[in-house]
Specification:
Pathway: Cofactor biosynthesis; molybdopterin biosynthesis. The protein is α+β, with helices and mostly antiparallel strands. It has four domains: 159 residues, MoaB/Mog-like domain (Molybdenum Cofactor Biosythetic Enzyme, Chain A), CATH 3.40.980; 45 residues, Molybdopterin biosynthesis moea protein, domain 2, CATH 3.90.105.10; 82 residues, Molybdopterin biosynthesis moeA protein, domain 3 (Beta Complex), CATH 2.170.190; 71 residues, MoeA, C-terminal, domain IV (Beta-clip, Beta Barrel), CATH 2.40.340. The protein is built from seven helices and 26 strands. It has a six-stranded mixed sheet with strand order 7-4-6-5-9-8, with no helix packed on it. It has a six-stranded mixed sheet with strand order 16-13-17-21-20-18, with helices on both faces. Strands 19, 22, 23, 24, 25 and 26 form a six-stranded mixed sheet that branches. Helix 3 packs parallel to helix 6. The longest helix has 19 residues. The two termini are 28 Å apart. The structure holds ligand LQZAQKY5 and molybdate ion (MOO). The site of molybdate ion has 8 residues, from loops.
């Protein structure tokens, strides 16, 4: 146990080792949702470019208002049409989105106006600025409105369009190679023979990588031999920016990933004090980052969420963000402690307390599907009913 690296130390070491692995490209803004900005975006105009009306009504100068005064309507301003300066002592008919004429400093909504023949009166005294959206209310010229490393959301597409932007500089998608290992594994769709199981980590890792916005460029399966493992890695090294693998990282005679990594590159760390996921290995192969995740499906999931997600995110140019978490009280006790940080698959009950799924085996995946997130129990900690622990919803990864 003494050789295990502490969870936070491993996380920091992997974070420190990582850097952007992809080039930049310019693409149309309309095709950029989900892509990662490579440069800051600075507003080149004010939005809105001019003060405009927030209501359909009448624009006037507050100083001109008097109780009972009937105003002539000196112009009609529709959105999209430039106004004339307001004739002193009059008001302008104005519509939502139309520019405020020079000389007006308030808009009275039409529901609060009384039409008197050709004229209009306003009972309530107006206040300066009422119903006027000032120039630059949303964005000011020179303001940084999006930063390199942000993932472009539909809101960004709208925001940048409102600046008149048509193209953005983004990072090319990170090409991720996935290697699964194990003689016992066959692809879903084939017929199971004695001793075989279906390869579930390959499809799960592909889905996790795709969901995070990266590109799965190759998914290869290798038998449990050093040669097969090495051949597969050589293929992935030719076409991928980063490689993830599953299985073959423990100490058994059939576990060849780590020894092949030592032959082809440099192993930075192996074995972390976490449960599940202990035999995680981090290496560099010919300049390409490599993360070897343990083969047990829940170990694969946990190590992907905590380590691979972070590494892929930095390598793809994204800002590294910690997963969202909040403190939740446990709805159960556990006096047994372990010397590893533990990530229990839990659900939040109607009472707001966290309940551990009864099946916490690292070989079982249904528990993760039936849970809402992880309860992080630090090493050597008992779990006490009503005490709070960090809860990380799966949706935050
Ligand atoms: N003597 C020891 N044995 C083990 C230790 C240890 O410290 N000493 N650690 C255990 C822990 S903890 C873990 S986690 C596993 C990790 O082992 P590997 O990463 O080498 O994974 P494999 O042995 O290849 O497989 C483990 C398990 O997972 C299944 N598996 C593998 N790949 C897939 C896949 N793509 N889809 C579905 N299931 C997969 C595999 O059949 C095994 O059952 O080692 C422990 N042993
Ligand atoms: O570290 Mo392993 O993932 O517990 O079975």
């Amino acid at each position: 146990m003494s050789t295990l690296l502490a969870f936070e130390e491993a996380l920091e070491a992997i974070k420190q080792s990582a850097s952007v692995r992809v080039e930049q490209q310019i693409i149309p803004l309309t095709s950029s949702v989900g892509r990662i900005l490579a440069t800051d975006v600075v507003a080149s105009i004010c939005v809105p470019p001019n003060a405009n009306s927030a209501m359909d009504g009448y624009a006037l100068a507050t100083n001109d208002w008097q109780a009972g005064k009937q105003f002539s309507i000196s112009q009609r301003i529709a959105a999209g049409h430039a106004p004339q300066p307001l004739m002193p002592g009059t008001c302008a008919r104005i519509f939502t989105g139309a520019n405020i004429p020079a000389g007006a400093d308030t808009v009275i909504m039409q529901e609060n106006a009384q039409i008197v023949g050709e004229k209009v009166a306003f009972n309530e005294p107006p206040r300066q600025g009422d119903n006027i959206r000032p120039k630059g209310q949303d964005m000011q010229t020179g303001q940084t409105v999006a930063q390199a490393g942000e993932t472009l959301s539909p809101m960004h597409i709208g925001l940048l369009s409102s600046l008149g932007i048509t193209d953005v500089t983004v990072y090319k998608p990170l090409r991720v190679g996935i290697l699964t290992t194990g003689d016992e594994l066959i692809a879903p769709g084939e017929t199971l023979q004695a001793g075989q199981i279906y390869n579930s980590n390959g499809p799960m890792l592909s889905a996790l990588v795709t969901q995070a916005g990266h590109l799965v460029s190759h998914c290869i399966h290798a038998a449990d031999t050093p040669k097969d493992t090495e051949d597969a890695l050589q293929i992935l090294l030719e076409s991928c920016d980063i490689i993830l693998s599953s299985g073959g990282v423990s100490v058994g005679e059939e576990d060849h990933v780590k020894s092949v990594l030592e032959k082809l590159g440099t192993v930075h760390l192996w074995k972390i004090a976490i449960k599940p996921g202990k035999p995680l290995v981090h290496a560099t192969l010919k300049g390409t980052p490599f993360l070897g995740l343990p083969g047990n499906p829940s170990s694969t999931l946990v190590t992907y969420h905590w380590f691979a997600r972070l590494l892929l995110s930095i390598c793809s140019g994204q800002k590294a963000q910690s997963p969202q978490s909040y403190l939740i009280d446990a709805g159960f006790n556990r006096s047994k402690t372990i010397t590893r940080d533990e990530f229990l698959r839990v659900s939040i009950g109607q009472d707001g307390l966290a309940y551990a799924h009864p099946q916490q085996s690292s070989g079982a995946l249904l528990a993760a599907c039936q849970s809402q997130g992880y309860l992080h129990i630090k090493a050597n900690t008992q779990i006490e009913y009503g005490h709070s622990y960090s809860f990380y919803p799966f949706s935050g990864f």
